[in-house]
Write a structure and sequence with these properties.
It is built from 11 helices and 8 strands. It is α/β, with parallel strands linked by helices and 248 residues long. The protein has a 5-stranded parallel β-sheet with strand order 2-3-1-4-8, sandwiched between helices. The chain has a 3-stranded antiparallel β-sheet with strand order 6-5-7. Strand 5 and strand 6 form a beta hairpin. Helix 2 packs across helix 11. The longest helix is centred in the C-terminal third of the chain and has 15 residues. The structure holds BIS(adenosine)-5'-pentaphosphate and magnesium ion. The site of magnesium ion has 6 residues, from helix 2.
């Protein structure tokens, strides 16, 4: 079992602190991961986090963690968010932004950060820019992962996720050592509710309409780094590190 940070400050919010804390990096990397549902953002975020020491900040993981809360502990906005998510629709910008603002300490993390699944609309990207300006922080790059749709569908249908630490597996291409059990924390592996075909279709449409325009937004700011998501996770990681190296 590994001792990677549990991301409690991000997943739980409030006064929760990560254990162990992320190590301070000499040059913390502050990156955004863009790409269609299932392209492999979470998988790359996990690998990049091990390499760069930066923390994976996934907005989807926060909503999924909130599902475990007792229904009376959920705010109306959070209950509505979980409903949107189940259907494959985007959660309203205001709900997402409230959640990120509450966790602004994670943007200041001395290990750096890997934003995974946020921002997802131009309004969210503008709000992030504003938040980073206030904190006197800058993005180093926005990684945009591309893959043909048929390969994405096969990645989504075989995905399994740890109910505990949220690590991501695939029944064929990235199986756990012991079937159904997480290599990292020993938690049980589950299939995500929004990986049903009808929700996947809605998620792809939302991506095309609301998130794909972000590539232009970041290209105009000279931050966009396009990376092919073909091949094994390790090959994509190497391609990403090379592309980031070329940026500096
Ligand atoms: P979110 O959790 O962000 O999901 P997503 O963007 O749909 O992306 P996924 O997590 O499905 O895919 P991924 O790219 O991370 O791929 P993965 O690495 O798992 O959001 C979920 C929902 O939350 C949204 O629909 C929305 O409702 C809500 N939400 C979240 N953020 C929001 C926001 N900012 N605004 C509004 N709403 C928001 O890989 C997929 C599979 O492929 C895995 O099984 C993996 O093992 C396998 N795999 C990965 N890489 C490879 C490879 N190279 N070769 C073979 N298999 C691979
Ligand atoms: Mg993901």
């Amino acid at each position: 079992m590994s001792t990677k940070p549990d991301r409690a400050a991000w997943l739980k919010g409030g006064t929760a602190a990560c254990s162990p804390q992320a190590e301070k990096q000499a040059r913390p990397q502050r990156l955004v991961l863009l790409g269609a549902p299932g392209v492999g953002k979470g998988t790359q975020a996990e690998l990049l986090s091990q390499r760069l020491g930066a923390c994976q900040l996934s907005t989807g993981d926060v909503f999924r963690a909130a599902k475990a809360l007792n229904p009376c502990e959920r705010t109306p906005a959070l209950s509505a968010a979980l409903d949107f998510m189940r259907q494959g629709k985007l959660v309203p910008d205001e709900t997402v932004l409230d959640m990120v603002r509450e966790r602004v300490g994670c943007l200041r993390c001395e290990g750096g950060f890997l934003l995974d699944g946020f921002p997802r609309t131009v309004a969210q990207a503008e709000a992030l820019e504003h938040l980073l300006q206030q904190e006197k922080l800058q993005l180093d790059a926005v990684l945009s992962y591309d893959l043909p749709i048929e390969k994405i569908v096969s990645r989504l249908s075989g995905r399994r996720t740890c109910a505990g630490c949220k690590a991501v597996y695939h029944v064929e291409t990235r199986p756990p050592k012991k079937p159904g059990v997480c290599d990292h924390c020993g938690g049980g592996l589950i299939q995500r509710e929004d990986d049903r075909p009808e929700s996947v279709r809605v998620r792809m449409e939302a991506y095309e309409k609301s998130t794909a325009p972000l590539a232009d937004y970041y290209r105009q700011r000279n931050l966009l780094v396009s990376v092919s998501a073909e091949g094994t996770p390790e090959e994509i990681l190497q391609r990403t590190l090379k592309a980031l190296g070329g940026q500096r």
